[in-house]
Amino acid sequence: MDINSNSNSSHSNTIPVFSTFTSPFESSPHADDVPRKPLSLWPGMYHSPVTNALWEARSNIFEILRDPPVDAPPQSQLLTKTPFQSRTTILYNFSTDYILREQYRDPWNEVRIGKLLEDLDALAGTISVKHCSDDDSMTRPLLLVTASVDKMVLKKPISVDVDLKMVGAVIWVGRSSIEIQLEVTQPTNEESSDALESIALTANFIFVARDSKTGKAAPVNRLSPETEQEKLLYEEAEARKLKKKKRGDDRQEIENGEVDRLKSLLAEGRIFCDMPALADRNTILLRDTRLENSLICHPQQRNIHGRIFGGFLMHRAFELAFSTAYVFAGMMPCFLEVDHVDFLRPVDVGDLLRLTSCVLYTELETTDQPLINVEVVAHVTRPKLRSSEVSNTFYFSFTVHPEVNAMKNEFRIRKVVPATEEEARRVLERMDAESLQLAKNINK
Questions:
Q1: pLDDT at 37
Q2: Residue 151 clears pLDDT 90, i.e. is over it
Q3: What homologous superfamily does CATH list for 247-443?
Q4: For 281-379, where are the alpha helices, taking DSSP H only?
Q5: Domain ranges of the chain
Q6: pTM (2 d.p.)
Q7: Closest CA to 4 of 91, 97, 79
Q8: Cα(167)–Cα(163) distance, integer angstroms
Q9: I want to staple 143 with a disulfide (CB 3.0 to 4.6 A). Which of 210, 240, 342, 361 is the partner?
């Protein structure tokens, strides 16, 4: 879907990005004219230059609304806004800004997808603030948080030597939720200035609005699509919401035959457990593909609301998933997509974040491009309280370059099998989710 239709008609929605930036406390040519920013509005300085630029734009909106009266009321009258009013563009000048290019380069001269995930979340957040702002300094601004990310798909490799554009807009709103569609585009021919831009990555983010004082769900401004394309995107988003309500019925049908499928999955795993010497050498237990990473959540990783930035969580989860696929395959993995992600609970500064990953299963029908499905579970752990809860579960899909796979023809991607019923259920749930998504795409 093209959400760029009106993007060239106004430059005000394009946010400039620089590879370096000055401290908010350093003097500038306009230091006497501009009040000094509070440090709480500058957490972006610890993230990527793009995230910093987006949070700076968002901070400017909050500054207009800063210091409302203590007893400031919530927004009393909802506004009606168009998708164009929230449409925002980010330009990555990789061809001319070598420092920016180096900040995003991975070992294979492509863009680091993990850093791009941070930027996508920051862009979606800035767009949601634009849509929900009522520009009234006498009302208290809303608290907007990432609720979920719908399937994010990489359609082609993203070069770090060619300029990149990221654009997004609100495409649908409910009572207190907002859906934002994002597209990353890059010219197909880096040597031609007139090269057509093709979509490299697509993603849809869902944000929810909370009253900043009560924490309860709060209504958001209405949306009025104008162009035929905007109306189509709105209708498609509405249809997705209706299909989600029917998912429980689909799930019930699948569960009817689950017992036999569990037995079949566990049969091969039991050979590994009971007779390891007789197990198939082209198969490996799920538990033997695991990796783990733990870290303390520091203030530098917070967002402008003081909690850990959702993009940071996706960044760390992606890099662990990539490492898991790399160690498993023995060759550089190629990222394909992130499935639907729900943000179940917020992560606070000082929390211990424990990320565990495994190859959940592989699909080997196409031997030159096998699919490697990686699960990453993020646990928020508080040792003092002796508590540990799941914050997010991520599902990443990878493959390998066909030419690299051909060079390593003596090596075969292994089949992964579960050893416990709990593992088998996780595998089946993921396979069923993929099947439902495939059926949905076919019926479109």
A1: 52
A2: no
A3: Hotdog Thioesterase (3.10.129.10)
A4: 310-329
A5: 14-245, 247-443
A6: 0.83
A7: 91
A8: 13
A9: 210
